[in-house]
Design the sequence.
DNA sequence: GCTTTGTTTTGTGTATACAAGAATATCCGG
DNA sequence: CCGGATATTCTTGTATACACAAAACAAAGC
């Protein structure tokens, strides 16, 4: 797209994702317009889009704020996330082509390398590719899109996840089970393992909850 | 909300749902503005919202059209729909309160009455309530919201579903199994039955496909 | 000192004006 | 009569202007 509101959307979305704009923070249309060198109109349209995506909340006559998700909402969203990923896995086990299986194994191998090298940042990135490989195997574009959307929506909070001791190794072993289930064609098993894998990340929400008040203080 | 674009959104959404605006149809901003007695600004904001929801597609500099879903996309969306409903069922089997179970049984009974009376329209409505009762049992607001969103998005096409012979009775029997699984606390069974129940509706897409070209001709 | 109410101020919602790109029609040559 | 280049029109994208509601603030009353 060549339109302003489209590029703006990506930029602001990124700012929210990396925490430059914090949950609860008020988004002043005029200020954003000035910052990006455009008028209020495209800014407004951007905010409306972000609101439809759930990243910001617009209250009539009271402006837009970055959406703040309470612990309850986060738990619910992680639960849905785990179900979506599980579904991807179940379908992937049935539908993956040999080429896609190779890609999955390669992504898995890359994770192992990152784990062995003890590089959490690399692992984080390779982990994304691993999950993307599973998504692709579902052969359901709509499902993939939905899953990615939710992932992006959870990103600002995932960022807060503390680096838990041994999480890398544990995560890798969980991946291992998933890979075997998928290449073995056992959809139900793959679904169950993936559901647990994602939920474990989600269940770190106790840590998240602990850091939430602080986050909101920062925003004020 | 007291804002124009919000009320407009509901109105246009409804027009799309009931087919007054047909898939592929071009949505002229000025014309809509005149029709609803407002300026182009709120109309634009409405269209952007609908685009984010996937109900319309905006191509830069070329305006908005009501989203047309091809057979492939419909299949994919029904597949995801079935998974979401299945998830609602699995959670409901574990989480429903006695009161909610009573509500589910009541909704089921209402479906039976409608079936016995051979009233497809009533059944259609009662069926919605039945599914809503399951959603509620999941105790996951986010999941419920996602499921409803997708349901609404599929509505314009569901409307096309031919009244299949004996579909009422079959549907009712499928419901029966689901109810028993849920009150019996067997989440996996409930999930499987619901998945199949929804997919059967989706697999009527061969009928849908047949009616699609006609629908698009109407829009032209 | 605290609450309360009136005023100011700020910021959103809508309308209108303007600019730019796409669709369409027109005009000319072949 | 037809095809292509150009001009015109039409619609969208953006900017600006205005109106109004809500929040912030100040002053007065209790």
Sequence:
């Amino acid at each position: 797209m060549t339109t302003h509101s489209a590029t703006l959307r990506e930029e602001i979305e990124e700012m929210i994702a990396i925490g430059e704009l914090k949950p609860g923070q008020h988004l002043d249309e005029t200020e954003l317009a000035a910052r990006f060198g455009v008028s209020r109109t495209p800014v407004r349209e951007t905010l409306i889009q972000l609101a439809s995506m759930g990243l910001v909340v617009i209250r009539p006559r009271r402006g837009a704020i970055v959406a703040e998700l309470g612990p309850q909402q986060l738990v619910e969203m992680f639960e849905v996330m785990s179900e979506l990923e599980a579904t991807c896995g179940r379908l992937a086990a049935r539908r993956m082509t040999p080429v896609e299986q190779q890609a999955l194994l390669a992504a898995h191998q890359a994770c192992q390398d990152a784990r062995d090298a003890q590089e959490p940042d690399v692992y984080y990135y390779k982990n994304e590719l691993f999950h993307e490989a599973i998504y692709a195997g579902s052969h359901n574009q709509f499902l993939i899109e939905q899953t990615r959307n939710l992932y992006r929506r959870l990103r600002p909070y995932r960022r807060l996840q503390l680096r838990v001791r041994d999480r890398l190794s544990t995560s890798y072993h969980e991946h291992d089970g998933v890979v075997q289930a998928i290449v073995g064609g056992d959809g139900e098993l793959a679904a169950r393992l993936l559901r647990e894998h994602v939920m474990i990340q989600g269940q770190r929400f106790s840590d998240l909850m602990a850091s939430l008040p602080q986050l909101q203080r920062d925003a004020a």
Notes: The interface with chain B takes residues 1-3, 5-6, 44-45, 48-49, 52-53, 60-61, 73, 76-77, 79-80, 83-84, 87, 91, 140-143, 146 of chain A (CB under 8 Å). Strands of chain A lie at 26-27, 56-59, 63-66. Residues 28-30, 40, 44, 60-63 of chain A lie near DNA strand C (CB under 10 Å from a C1').
